[in-house]
Every structure is written in C-alpha cells, then in structure tokens.
C-alpha cells in the first residue's frame, strides 16, 4: 500500500478528512488503515507479485505459454450443478502431471462474486475462475477494467492431442465467438448445452402423450395433462424466471431467425416490439395460464423435484438438468428433451431447431500471479482427456469435439444427442445480453414473471422491455457491446 | 477537580473512538466520495462524475418504489410491534392484578416470556426459511393448509403484489415483538409499586391502570423502541432477500433500499450509483431519528 498516496482518490480523501479536523486522530495507525480502504491501493501488490514467478518458464512445444514450472496456481470453481470434482479429480491432477513442482490451491464456492469481488478490488486474484451461478461476476465490467486476459493466445496454441492443430479447431463451431467481449475472446465457454423443454419419457409413454410440435398442440396437451392432474408446464418464478425468458427468446428466434437474437444483444431500436417477439410472448403467456400461480413462489429445485415426482410435465431448462437432479430422480424417470413448439406455420426455423450453445464461462484474470498457468490450465481442460473426464464427473458434454466418444450416455444425454442430430444446421444461437447488460437482464426476469403469471399482456411486456432496452442504450455509464456473429 | 482527570478519560476513550473512526466514520466518508464517482468496484480508477448519480435517482422508479416501501414499513411495523408488545408486557407484568400487595402477571407468564422472546434468538436466515414454508402459496403451506381445511382457497402471501409487503412486515413484527416485550417489562418494573397500589385503592381497573399509569410512565422506553424499530424499518434486507420472489418482487412490490444498493453494487457493478443510494438512505435514517426524538420529547418524570 506504499504508493496509495499517489492515487488521486487517496489525496482527495485525505484532504477531506483534514478539512473536518480528523487528521490528529488518524495520524498514527489510522493512516495506514485508511489507505487500505476500498478504492485505493489495489494495483501495487498485484503488480509486484505477478512479475516474479511467471517470468520463469521457457516456451517449448509442450509448454507454448512458457509457464514457470514451480509457480503456484489458484483455481476457483463454481460449485453448482456441475459440482467441482471435475477440477479436483481431473484437471488439477493433469496440471500437476505437467508441472509436478507446482502447488495448486483449489477453491470451490457457490458465491463467486461475494468471494472474488473484494479480491479483485484488493488486487489479490486467483489464476483461473469458473465464473458461473446466480452470483457470477459481471464479465463485461471485468473486461472494461482490464482484469481479463485475452484468450487469443489460447485459441491459437497447439492442441495437446494433436500439436498440428490449433486449439480453436478442436472445439465446436461458435465456441470462440460465444466468448467475445468487445470483439476479442475473453471467455472460454466450455460446456455444450442444449435448451428446450425437458420431460419424463416414461411418464409420457404411460399416459400416451407426445410432446407438442406447435402451440396449438401445446394448448391441447395442456388440457390433457391438466385433466390427468399433472401441471402441464411450470418454471420457478422465485429465482429462475430466466429459464422462461430463454423459451420466449427461442420461440421469437425460430419465427424470425437468429438475426433476432443478434438484434436483441445489439439493442437495435424497436426489436422488442417486432411481430416475432409479440407472437412469441403472446403464445407463451397462453401457456402460462395453465401454470398454478403458486409456482411464482417456488425455487428451481422445488419445481424440478415436483417434475421428478410426476407432478409437472414439461420444464424449461438446459442439458445440465439431468445431472443436477441425479440424486432426486427415481429410477423409472427418464429425462428427454423436446424442442420448443413452432408458433406459426411460417416460422423461419423448423420445429426440430434447438438452442445449443457453448456456456459456462471460464476466465483467466489478467492481474493474477500466474496467468500463464491459468492459460495452460484451460488448454488442459480443452484436451480430449480433460474433456472426457469432465463429462464423466459432471455428466455434461463439452465443446471439445469427439471427446465424449465411447462414453455410455445417460437417457437425457442420449435424447440430447438425438435432438442435435434432428436439428442439424437449425441451431438457435445464444444471447450475450445476459453477460453484457445485467441491469437489463434483471428487468427481463421481472417482466417475464409478470407476463407468465398473467399480470401484464404480451403487448405490455413488449412495451416495458423496449423501454428497458432504450434506457440501457441511453445510459452513458454502461459500456455498449456489439456482436455480428 | 483533580489534576489528571482528562488524560485518564482520554486514555479510556482513545481506543474505541479510533476503532469507531476507522470502521464506521471512514467508510461513511468513503461512501460519500464514491457516490460522486462512476466506480465499478473492480479496480482502483474511479472517475469523478459530480452529482450525476444523484440526478439519476430522480427518475429511477425502482428507487422510489423502495422509498415508498420504507414509508409503509415505517408507518405499520413500529406501530403494530409496539401495540402488541405493550399489550403482552402489560399482561405479563401487571395483568394478573394484585396479589399480596404485589402486581403480578397473568397465570404462566414466566413461560410466555420465554416463548415471546424465542423468535429473537433465531437467525434471520432461519426465520426466512421457516416463513417460506409457512407462507408457501399452494396448499402445502402452513397457513394455506389450515385455510384449506375451512374451505378457503390458497392465498399467495408472497406472490400477490398487493399483500407481499404486508406478509414480510408480518414476519418482522413476529420477530421483533419478543424483544420489546422484554424492554417494556424492564420499563414497567421501574415504575414504583406504590403508584399502582394507590391507584388500585382508588378503584382503578386494569384498563385505567394501563392507560393512566403505565403508558405515561413508560414514555421514555417507548420513544427508544420507536427509534429502534424505525431504523429496523430502513433495513429489512435479509428477510426480503430470502422471502420475496425474484429478490424484491413480484413487480418490485417488496423491494427495499438496502436490497437495491446490494444489487446495484454487486450485480450491476455500479458501486458509485449504489453509494449514492446509500447516502440517500443515510440521510433518511438520520432525519427519521432526529425527528422522532424531537417530536416525542416530553418532560421526564422523576420518581
């Protein structure tokens, strides 16, 4: 903290304190403590610490980033649906094998932001972070503050399995693009997720139901399920309304094409009032009417449990669901995925189209003590051995192509794989506003609940979201992002 | 006075004052400074933006919704809590009438005292979890289950925007009453017995005893209670966070300032703007405390 007096913040504060005559009181130990305050002194320790150990290693074919063999590595993993055993049992041992002298510190937490925000402000950051969960850190804000390491070096590095290939050529198309901020790659999205409606194929077979292909069929299905005493469609309003807005956005994208999702991310004027959006919102609001009001007070695990108990038929989620529910799912329950039904006969994309995207961002802080080690850790994750181990431990498929070959797939993953084959090139892409504009996203969660639980009409929903988008666009304190792919 | 009195006092005061300055006063001052910047909370280069954050507050509808909720909390929560606590503590201490020249509480008052105080020792998170089950909106909720037995449809305690805030206020009252029963009991025990005796001899009933003797002599304690509860009404963060739909919903109907500050800072990375809200909250709390102490000032009665 020795140089904190040099930052403008500290000087103003000191002057302020002097003016109100507290100088005498803080002159002794207080001065040191005060300079440790929130906005000052962050840079110094990080700068000195990162210089020393990472300068060591020599660049070679096996060590393309020049990681110092003895530099310690700190890994922070979001311990949610994926658990963290994939890191402790697979990736960390692999790193240890490559660099036997390195010590690895593992932190598994459910609260990424609460754990790391003070550490970023204080300059003591880990080397690799699985930045996920409800309380993830704002990636765009981190990037703007120069806290993220650009990953171009990683994507251009030789793959561990085949050094003649670049890492970027060993992953599913769109993976690198999904991690762009401000046109440059900063996020490594690792998990290949598909989004749609999940159901118990055994329950459907027993009742003679088939998943609906159009919204008319969907409504007819809702009547049938309701008559059978099963809630036809439900999601958790208390903490997972974003599961529902994913579906609304997917439907709009199926009507209009993926350009719609691009335009939403780019805050294009009037995008929320387009016909595709209105039709989708209206169609989903109709389905919302079949949902019991009490679901607004439920959390996602509650609704998912009800589905496992056969009380809920269709549940909107992503492909991590099966693994997340592993301990609750009865043996007779067979997870299966169906795409969102078509809204109109003129939809640009067929019923079979599913949303599939690389998700779960892994980041390397730029000001960590061993950023090269962080990059190497990601390269190990992207090796076939690392990816296969991840699938075994977490039950989720990664972006690494062909890594799951030879693994026996669970019912959910088998259904996912079939859905992917059926979809072919008809893939609904991703949304980036969730990472870029957190405030806007919060508003969307709020209004999604209002729409789905019948407090506002589809038109009001579109109006309110357009207003929120316009507000974000006009807010000078939010840095605007743009994407073209 | 003897020489050396001041070094003695300063010796005692220095450490606590220093701690207070470092951990309380200096963060306040920092918050004032940060509220004039666009700090994102991540690295150490905040830009000075003047009063921009404060002008933003003017058209922030969520901020005003939160302020309105504090208004409701401030009106309802202290009043209900104090009325219930006064009633209970009167029953516990004086409600049993006279026995052997002593005022006593109702039968079993020692047991009730423990029961009333129990919510106070529970952590807020536990209270939140308890009430999640009690308020559950389908027929598996405790209240709705009971209502179902008498044929009333489930009520959306926390999911109906019209009653969600009141439901949360209910929890706050439930939790606070025990403490104020104890506080008022302590206050009542300082009222001299002969005052009650004299009144009782003159034929005053329990009702008269309460309104003519207990209440006026308890004024100081009630004033303290009012300030405490008022300040609690400016918080409510934990309960809203745990209980409400989508943290402050549905449709902003339960949001409070501490929650918005937390969200603005830690989710939206707008520490500058969040600090501006914090400064606004600071002034609201201070104004409330000063007003209450001034408005309720009365002459003290010395026994």
From TrEMBL, chain A:
Keyword Transmembrane: no
Source species, domain of life: Bacteria
Cited SUPFAM superfamilies: Periplasmic binding protein-like II (SSF53850)
Keyword presence, Ligase: no
Any Pfam family hit: SBP_bac_1
Keyword vocabulary terms for this entry: Signal, Transport
Localization in the cell: Cell envelope
One GO cellular component term: cell envelope
Predominant cellular place of this UniProt entry's protein: other
Family designation: Belongs to the bacterial solute-binding protein 1 family.
NCBIfam families attached to this UniProt entry: chitin_NgcE
Protein name: Carbohydrate ABC transporter substrate-binding protein, CUT1 family
Organism listed in the record: Streptosporangium subroseum
From TrEMBL, chain B:
Compartments in which it is found: Cell membrane
Main location as per UniProt: membrane
BP GO terms, sorted: transmembrane transport
Name of the featured protein: N-acetylglucosamine transport system permease protein
Source domain of life: Bacteria
A cellular component annotation (GO) from this entry: plasma membrane
InterPro entries, A to Z: ABC_transporter_permease (IPR051393), MetI-like (IPR000515), MetI-like_sf (IPR035906)
Phylogenetic placement of the source organism: Bacteria, Bacillati, Actinomycetota, Actinomycetes, Streptosporangiales
Membrane topology: Multi-pass membrane protein
Organism in which the protein naturally occurs: Streptosporangium subroseum
